[in-house]
Design goal:
Biased composition (Basic and acidic residues): 119-130
Largest sheet: none
Biased composition (Pro residues): 99-109
Strand content: under 5%
Biased composition (Low complexity): 85-98
Number of helices: 5
Oligomer: single chain
Keywords: Membrane, Transmembrane, Transmembrane helix
Order of helices and strands: HHHHH
Distance between the termini: 110 Å
Region (Disordered): 64-130
Helix content: 40-55%
């Protein structure tokens, strides 16, 4: 019977016993995964850490809810807190804001009346054959 299993597990190009060794290793790994507790994978540790974080968040929420004021007392709105600045601090001329941006001055071209002028070379295009 063992020889029949060995013949069925034979891998071409390798010795006859290699297939049996692969099968035994595969069975041992499968057995290890079945017998291994989940805490080895880290699931239990992660769940404990998440539970601790959840407890911290709940205590923080409880402390924040105790610090909030009662519904009858509330802070005044921003408009009620606003105080106009004194007239001495205001700008002297409060003009209406401009609708359009200011027009820039025209570009200033250099004066070429008195100095030597630059002349570009003249091209005879198309050239006429002589």
């Amino acid at each position: 019977m063992l020889q029949e299993i060995q013949a069925a597990l034979t891998i071409p190009g390798l010795p006859d016993w290699v297939g049996l060794v692969f099968l035994v290793c595969l069975l041992l790994v499968g057995l290890a995964y079945l017998l291994m507790p989940f805490s080895v994978f880290g699931v239990k540790g992660r769940l404990d850490a998440i539970e601790a974080q959840l407890d911290e968040i709940q205590t923080e929420l409880r402390s924040l809810s105790l610090r909030t004021p009662e519904p009858g007392r509330r802070r005044p709105a921003l408009e009620e807190d606003w105080v106009d600045p004194s007239p001495a601090l205001r700008p002297a001329a409060e003009a209406a804001p401009r609708v359009a941006p200011p027009v820039p001055p025209p570009p200033a071209w250099p004066d070429r009346s008195g100095g030597p002028s630059r002349s570009e070379p003249r091209l005879d295009w198309p050239r006429t054959p002589r």
